Amino acid sequence: MSCRVRIAVARRFLAGILPVLLLLASTPGSRAFAAERFPLALTDDRGVTVRLAAPPRRIVSLAPSLTEIVFLLGREGSLAGVTRFCNYPPAASSLPKIGGVSDPDVERIVALSPDLVLCTTDGNPRDKVRAVEEMGIPCFAVAPQDLDAVFTSIERLGVLLGAADRGRTEAGALRRRARLARPSSPDAEKPAVLFVVSTSPIIAAGKGTFMDELVRLAGGRNAAAGFSGRYPRLSVEELVAARPDVIFVAGMAGVERFPPEVTRWKEVPAFRDGAVITLDGDLVTRPGPRLVTALERVSAALAGWRRSRTKSPAAGAGGKR
Amino acid sequence: MTGGGKKSGAVFPVLAAALLGALALSAATGPVAISPRAAFDAIFRGTDDTPARVLLSLRLPRALLGALVGGALASSGVAFQALLRNPLADPYILGVSGGAAVGALTVALFLSADASPLLPLCAFGGAALSALVVFLLARRRSGVSPERLILMGVVVGAFLNAVIMLMVTLAPPGKIPGALYWLMGDLGQGTPHRVEVLFPYVALGMVLLYLLSRGLDLLLLGDHAAFQAGLSVERVKTATYLTASLLAGSVVAVSGLIGFVGLIVPHGARVLVGSGHRRLLPAAFLLGGAFLVLSDTLARAASPAGELPVGAVTALAGAPFFLYLLRRNGGRS
After folding, report:
1. What residues in A contact B116, CB-CB < 8 Å?
2. What percent of chain B has pLDDT above 90?
3. How far is CA A103 from the centre of its chain?
4. What secondary structure letter does DSSP report for B187?
5. Which of A62, A72, A222, A267 has the most CB atoms around its CB within 10 Å?
6. Rg for chain B, CA atoms, rounded
7. How far is B128 from B205, CA to CA, in rounded Å?
8. B234-258 b/e with 16+ CB inside 10 Å = b?
């Protein structure tokens, strides 16, 4: 009995002091800055204005990308709950879970008594978010559609969480890395690139996906851009007809290799030259800081492809300049 | 369910021509350009360029798979409709589909990685097992009544559906996209090997059903009348049930759940050749095959977003045609 009370007191003391400690540790001199900004009113990507009197101390994140951003901003000490998909940084896995991205449990969210819920319009059901808002908990929605918007969202979340400086520096660093990752000369050869999120059936990333943007930024052509829909499903014949030079597979904890009856089509340059590269699916599907890591890997792979072309001028068709 | 074979003998040549035409159209449709000449060379001269290989290892197997699957589903539907004396019976009515789906999802969940060769096997196992369970549950000492079969099939099917929902919900992300697409029905798995594997099952099932056709005719009169006519009713029922389930199960294992064909094509075939099973079974096979091959061709040709699952196209494409057929005939069934 008395033991439990003691633990509760200790917990409360810790919960109170932890953010302060973290602030002191992470960004010296930013306390005055944070205090300056609050109370603040910030409009989210839905057009809803969220008002906070002070930096939030109990945050619930409803998407893995948002969890990664909170960690990037050094505010993980305020994370009270995350989804069951939040596995990065590894420390996120041990935080209390509130369900999935498309099926968050409103009751569990409310039970954590957060003072801010971070959500996304790409994945979180609108009615669940509304239910949380009706309980008087402010929800801030972020829905970046391209890399630039991801950087901006990091800056805005920095302001919202009382880590504005950190948000600016981190976003700036990411922007620099993204610039460096792009091919040096604008007229570098553009390989036909296929990005697949599933190998059986073959489901490609089409226009309007982050993977499409990664391919373009890295100086490639998306071989699936001709199809409508964000995730067209390709038959083997369509893959053969598209003739991609490089294929990326977004590994999703499932099947990550093409079955042999697909890879035996040596008409496809990527299979002929062994240019099939597996990337962690989390990197390329989450609009968070690691998207830049994905861009660096895609760029490096395409640069490697260009180098192999200059070494051995490929015989036959394929010269697209 | 009367209305004898009043149509002329020209129906079968027309149906056979329709199936061949559908196969040809299917083989001619696709993103890789293949001239008729190249096709001819590929088939008769054994050329080995890209068009030839696309034709022989992608398009033709897929078309043949469609013919086998469509034919088997339609014939299996005919058998179930006779067995259960119910015009709304289809090959999936007795839990075959649920069993196959659970089998397939089990592969996707627990054996992960490249389990695609195992998927048909486990789907077939699941289908066979659930069909057997339904049959044993429905059996009484007095025999198997259609009502009990349907009831048990529905209960077992509901239970399996709940299991499917649990599996899909609790699966880690990215584990079962393949299985989900498979559930929608898909002929994209058509490889020469699959066609070879499926063919003996379908051939055996069709031969057995054909041998049972007199029995099926008598079953339509009711158990009592069939018994009076000297039919060993229970044995015919058991044989029909097992054969039709085998057909449905083996097809589901390869191509997933394709709806509509097994339910509606038998009625269309009845309009064309009457309800004598000796003519109805082959007619349903040809009509179902042609119909599914055409639906699949449409699914590949008409879709701007890569492939549509053929299961989504069968009813869309087929409903108007079969409505016309059934209405024109006064819609007696």
Report:
1. 200, 255, 259
2. 36
3. 19
4. -
5. A62
6. 20
7. 14
8. eebbbbbbbbbbbbbbbbbbbbbbb
**A321 pLDDT tier (thresholds 50, 70, 90):** very low
Closest-CA distance of chain A to residue B219, Å:
43
pLDDT beyond 60 at A81: yes
Contacts of B168 in chain A (CB under 8 A): none
CA distance A224 to A212: 9
Q: Tell if the CB–CB gap between A233 and B305 is shorter than 8 Å.
A: yes
Nearest to B80 by CA among B14, B5, B134: B134
From chain A residues 27-86, the ones with a CB under 8 A of any chain B CB are 85
State the residue for tokens 């042609």.
Answer: B290
Interface membership of B176 toward A (CB under 8 Å): yes
A277 beta partners: A248
Asked which of A96-100, A196-200, A242-246 is least confident by mean pLDDT, the reply is A196-200
The 10 Å CB-count burial string (b at 16+, else e) for B125-134 is: bbbbbbbebb
CA distances from residue B173 to A203, A255, B106, B112 in whole angstroms, order as listed:
15, 12, 15, 12
Q: Which of helix, strand or coil describes residue A81?
A: strand
Kindly state the DSSP code that residue B12 receives in the 8-state scheme. Answer: H
Q: Is B261 helix (H, G, I), strand (E, B) or coil?
A: helix
The answer to whether A51 and A39 are in contact (CB under 8 A) is yes
CA-based max dimension of chain A = 82
Mean pLDDT of A41-66: 95
Cα separation, A98 vs A112, whole angstroms? 9
Q: What separation in angstroms does the CA of A45 have from each of A141, A152, A213, A230?
A: 6, 11, 20, 21
Q: Which DSSP string corresponds to B31-60?
A: SS---HHHHHHHHHT---SHHHHHIIIIIH
Report for A167-171, B161-165, B186-190: range of highest mean pLDDT = A167-171
Element at B238 (helix H, strand E)? helix B233-255
> Which is nearest to B105 in space by CA: B311, B309, B251, B256?
B256
B267: three-class secondary structure by DSSP = helix
Q: How far is CA B128 from CA B96, B124, B145, B171, in A?
A: 7, 6, 20, 24
* Residue with token string 């948002």: A66
Distance between CA atoms of B73 and B101, rounded to whole angstroms?
16
The beta-carbon neighbor of A237 closest among B31, B108, B115 is: B31
CA distance A250 to chain B (A): 10
Q: Is B259 on the interface with A (CB under 8 A)?
A: no
Nearest to A277 by CA among A220, A201, A206: A220
In angstroms, the CA B290 to CA B285 distance is: 9
d(CA A198, CA A179): 29
CA nearest to B66, candidates B204, B162, B187, B167: B187
3-state secondary structure of A279: strand
State the Cα–Cα distance between residues B134 and B93, nearest whole angstrom: 11
